Amino acid sequence: MKKNKLLSTILFLLISVVIAKSQNVTIPIITENLATVLQTDENNRLKIVYFGKSLTNLTEYARVEEVFNFDSEGADSNNSAFSVAGINNNFVEPAIAVVHVDGNNSLDLLYNSHTSSKMDDGSILTTVTLKDAVYPFYVELNYKVWSNHDVVEQWSVIRHIENGEVLLNKYASANLYLNNKDYYLTSYNGAWAKEMRPVETHLRQGMHTIETRLGTRANLLTSPNFMLSLDGKSTETTGTVMLGQIAWNGNFAMQFETDVFKNMHIVAGINPYQSAYHLKPNTPFETPRFIYTMSFEGNGKGSRNLQNWLRSHVLMDGQGSRLTLLNNWEATYFDFDQDKLVSLFSGARELGVDLFLLDDGWFANKYPRNDDSAGLGDWKVNKDKLPDGIPFLVREAEKEGVKFGIWIEPEMVNPESELYENNPDWVIKQDDRPEIYFRNQLVLDLSNPEVQDFVFGIVDGLLVENPTLAFMKWDCNSPIFNAHSKYLESQNIPQSHMYVEYSKGLEKVLKRIRAKYPSIHMMLCSGGGGRSDYNLLKYFTEFWMSDNTDPLERVFMQWNYSYYYPSIATANHVTNWSIDKSLKFKIDVASMGKLGFDIRANELSDTDMKFAKQTIKNYDDFKQIIWHGDMYRLLDPYQNDMASLMYVNKDKTEGVMFNYLTNWRYLSETSLRPIKLQGLDKDKNYRLTEINLYDSQNSSIDHERVYSGEFLMNVGFNPLVNNYRTSVVIKIASINN
Ligand code: DGJ
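A: This is the predicted complex of the input protein with DGJ.
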């Protein structure tokens, strides 16, 4: 090539790069503290060029790409905004994998357009449309941001106008790319009564997946929540950390892939396991939300972001109030009749709780529900146990000044039931294979509209018959085995749609219930804590985190749940689960949420009854702070011999501090040092008073002392926890300065 020609070619190339660069589209998605910057490259592919602290000068986002080196081989495609399968420049896990109508399985998504607008709910929604370079196949990437909470919801909508069905083999909600070099992931595994056990993994290479395949009761073995510390381990008050969840009640998968450049690629969404989806033209498929917050000031700030956001925008009646209750499950199990129940109502009144909750065992006649082996599905009151029906019980409870609530498990059926006898096709099972039971039951096929009507009818029937019913506990005890839907078969819909259609069917029912009954309080329960996703919490006022109500276990469990949920959403009951812990310890722990009792109240000694009544009064006094204030985790029971947490109201005038001994050994280091409080006003003065004490107990705390907020937050306060004071509750009140 002649010299001149070479020069002009180089010049031409340089100019085109400059032009291409100047034509790049930059899309900053910004909250108060976090920015995700998307930018098209010279081929019009959309890349994630920044994920980090937000900038004041918006024009500078166009330049962030310059200071990272994404141009080395391979990395060029690792930071794709939605990684695809089927073109060769992609080396990381795909967020989407499809087979087009003509059998071709490639995808090359190019930037098409984007919009950004303020929504009525105060959020900002940015939607970026990508289109395949060859096929009329589109993916919308949605980013809904809640600026003041630093919360982002990400989901995709997939559609096409090809001439037939496109097979979606993978269809994630979200794809993220982080350049932080060092990642510590906390995920949670569990089992019945062992929910939410944290496991920390230092992610250094390859893929780490958090997933479930249980269908229903999805969180039984794996929680959908995670915490990812970036650039080293975060603490409660320091470090950069992402806390989040995939909000889907069915099978989910979150993949954390550390690439060769030590960057983190996250793909989250519905688990593609047995779920290839045949998408018709012009039928948008909306994926569930992947939701996260970022904190640059440690885990505490991150969880307050999520707690505030959930209360304001997700949880049913998150800004409202809750009903304290007495539940009969552990008091009677299935062994009750009308008289026994009525005799418990006076106990509820005497304790001073708002509601009596009748649990499992009240229904079915041909196959009475006297244990968990029969009757599930036959939602007619059992005439032997309750001859005067539910309306009688509601009336009797109300005579005692107590509201009435009831347990249901509407998605499930015992094989020994009239429901199963009459509607075998409503049950998820493989006809030619042996049935597999979990707690002697099977799952109804909620992809079937008739089953959806049936489930809606259970709730509707109870509320039409008992209009003052104030509460429902919605249980769900079995995962899905032998996944096969007779309904989908009859409609010629592939079986691989079953898991997705089940989850969508459930949500349809809940939407219908809430359209007709917007205000009844409902607890989401799942054989303990098998369900607590943000999507279902739109329909529920609270959830049951575990059947394990041992208060010591609960200190740890509530600690772990508290990263992701506000205390108003967590139902905590005082039970006889552990006989070795005091009533005080139990009530104190259960007070850090929505307080309930699952005991035979009328069997309490006079002293215990007097004490319990006083603590419920105390709870009534401070519950607004627990429900609507800010929570601070002060001393981690995993690293100390005790746990300490506090709640402060938004004005910083009142708070409550809870302290628990978690290690009973002689040399446990509990009262050696003061505990630094958080969230107070440094310029206010506070008096700290110990509450929830028996008449016979003297407090070791000097109630006359007054401390400045500055002192309490920098020097601290010593609640003097020891083997004789295993649980200490301190009321914090500002005094006139
Ligand atoms: C499982 C729940 O977690 C319990 O609280 C109780 O409601 C039982 N089911 C009833 O069968």
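The CA atoms of residues 615 and 692 lie 5 Å apart. The chain is about 25% helix and 30% strand.
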